Amino acid sequence: MLVSGPLLTPDHALSRALVRTVPDSVTERLSDLGNIPVAVPVLVLAMAYAARRGRALAAGAAGLAMALVPALVIPFKEWTARPGPLEPWAAGYFPSGHTATAAVAYLGAALLVRPYARRAWPTAAALVLTGATAVGLILRGWHWPLDVLASLLLCTPLLLGVAWADRARRVSRVGRARRVSLRSTRRSSG
Length: 190
What we know:
Elements: H1 8-18, H2 24-32, H3 36-52, H4 56-80, H5 97-113, H6 121-140, H7 145-189
């Protein structure tokens, strides 16, 4: 159980200062943005859109990233058995599954639709939704600030995998175009 360490004192102090400073009705709705029935459909729609536009590899990587969220979060919850800010008798609060779900769903969706947007709104919207989830969880007292931060750090490699898959597709497409262009040039000069 996580009961000591240099980061826990400021984590507890920050939590005590923030919990219930905003009405529960607001923070509960913000926290709900990280629920599976809310966040995952956003990612599924973005995956379908990206796949339809020829980016099946990136869409598949985003789906795999979401599938891996429980595989990352649940073992840490069981290993640490950290109690919650308002429920010291309960365990399994570190890291935040809601934050991880929100981050992979919203930021993954932004990575998939960003190439088709003329502005940076998908990324901005994803950051706002993920941040709102994290803030709601902390203000409501359902998670410590470090629970939320740990989730964001755990999800970073998953999101980098989505970005890598999309980049790999673009690089292979450019390479194919160059090879085709080279063949055409050789044929015409030969």
